[in-house]
């Protein structure tokens, strides 16, 4: 009998917790565990610990499967990471950092960075192929207009997976930044100006140093598709 200690961490953002059922399967080089229930109630920023009992040593743990099942109402869950301690004391880390929605199973690889050539096990090769196919299906491109860079083939950001949309906090900060900048430019006479600028130096006076810092912070999260000179 081999006993693995597992710790499952929930993200600390708003509504990261869930009251849906979460279970886990450990996948090692020599085999995999049975599906084991973690809990049916998670709070943001909290961790759940459990023991997974296996009939034999699974070898190095290379993959985990997180299973989410709806009990009554759908309640998305944001998994931060999973840590697995083997019977010999080896610690394996599985960074997840994504939302699980609906009835779903998500596979997460062990956190060591590896190239495709490093995947010796067939299960890891199959996982990489499935992940690539899923991304190619989710992110398709289209031409917005002749001569323009291609863009995602969606009509709204709400058609995208929750994991690639702005979080509520980031969206609120971005909206607040736009309102602040719009008000500043309005009071500076930038928005209602009817005459041409006399020089580049006159245009530079519109943007104070503090506004420049704010723009820099915004561009970290939302880079423009063209360079600023």
TrEMBL record:
<feature type="binding site">
    <location>
        <position position="75"/>
    </location>
    <ligand>
        <name>Ca(2+)</name>
    </ligand>
</feature>
<dbReference type="Pfam" id="PF01477">
    <property type="entry name" value="PLAT"/>
</dbReference>
<dbReference type="InterPro" id="IPR036392">
    <property type="entry name" value="PLAT/LH2_dom_sf"/>
</dbReference>
<dbReference type="InterPro" id="IPR001024">
    <property type="entry name" value="PLAT/LH2_dom"/>
</dbReference>
<keyword id="KW-0223">Dioxygenase</keyword>
<keyword id="KW-0560">Oxidoreductase</keyword>
<keyword id="KW-0443">Lipid metabolism</keyword>
<comment type="similarity">
    <text>Belongs to the lipoxygenase family.</text>
</comment>
<feature type="binding site">
    <location>
        <position position="17"/>
    </location>
    <ligand>
        <name>Ca(2+)</name>
    </ligand>
</feature>
<comment type="pathway">
    <text>Lipid metabolism.</text>
</comment>
<keyword id="KW-0963">Cytoplasm</keyword>
<dbReference type="GO" id="GO:0016853">
    <property type="term" value="F:isomerase activity"/>
</dbReference>
<dbReference type="GO" id="GO:0034440">
    <property type="term" value="P:lipid oxidation"/>
</dbReference>
<feature type="domain" description="Lipoxygenase">
    <location>
        <begin position="114"/>
        <end position="229"/>
    </location>
</feature>
<dbReference type="InterPro" id="IPR042062">
    <property type="entry name" value="PLAT_LOX_verte"/>
</dbReference>
<feature type="binding site">
    <location>
        <position position="76"/>
    </location>
    <ligand>
        <name>Ca(2+)</name>
    </ligand>
</feature>
<keyword id="KW-0413">Isomerase</keyword>
<dbReference type="InterPro" id="IPR013819">
    <property type="entry name" value="LipOase_C"/>
</dbReference>
<dbReference type="InterPro" id="IPR036226">
    <property type="entry name" value="LipOase_C_sf"/>
</dbReference>
<keyword id="KW-0479">Metal-binding</keyword>
<protein>
    <submittedName>
        <fullName>LOXE3 isomerase</fullName>
    </submittedName>
</protein>
<dbReference type="GO" id="GO:0005737">
    <property type="term" value="C:cytoplasm"/>
</dbReference>
<feature type="site" description="Essential for stabilizing binding to COTL1">
    <location>
        <position position="99"/>
    </location>
</feature>
<feature type="domain" description="PLAT">
    <location>
        <begin position="2"/>
        <end position="114"/>
    </location>
</feature>
<dbReference type="InterPro" id="IPR001885">
    <property type="entry name" value="LipOase_mml"/>
</dbReference>
<keyword id="KW-0106">Calcium</keyword>
<dbReference type="InterPro" id="IPR000907">
    <property type="entry name" value="LipOase"/>
</dbReference>
<dbReference type="GO" id="GO:0005506">
    <property type="term" value="F:iron ion binding"/>
</dbReference>
<dbReference type="GO" id="GO:0016702">
    <property type="term" value="F:oxidoreductase activity, acting on single donors with incorporation of molecular oxygen, incorporation of two atoms of oxygen"/>
</dbReference>
